[in-house]
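Researcher: Re-running this chain for the archive, since the previous output was lost when a drive failed. Same request as before.
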Amino acid sequence: MSDLDALYRELILDHSKHPQHFGLAADDAQPGSSGTSYQKNPVCGDEITLRARVDGETVADVTWEGRGCSISQASASMLADLVAEEGLSRTEIVTLVEGFREALRSRGQLELDEEVYGDAAALSGVSKFSARVKCAMLAWVALEDAIAKA
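Model: Regenerated structure tokens:
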């Protein structure tokens, strides 16, 4: 295992052990509309409930609760952290999710750009393991659904 692979593995484990933005915010906790999405991976049992608060066209906050493997939990944590740091628009979220999906379906041919995806770029290696792609995608699918509902 290369030093970079070891660093990425450690980052994934850290996010799964110390998840960011864990715990659902109340629907009416802050101004704006919110959308909530529950997603489950029937293959392995990973599940997530994700709530996105949208203020106009900006996704202002993402909170979540879930259980599952370290990849699904780390992916949710990384995604929520990324959205919180950037304050992304609905359109930017759609583009981000599409790029993430494309990279994870590439079977290792595409790498996620760390400047765009932050810590979530560490999940690029998951694309080599098709059984784990759904684990990493779970929170991203939930975010798409939640902002559509907001």
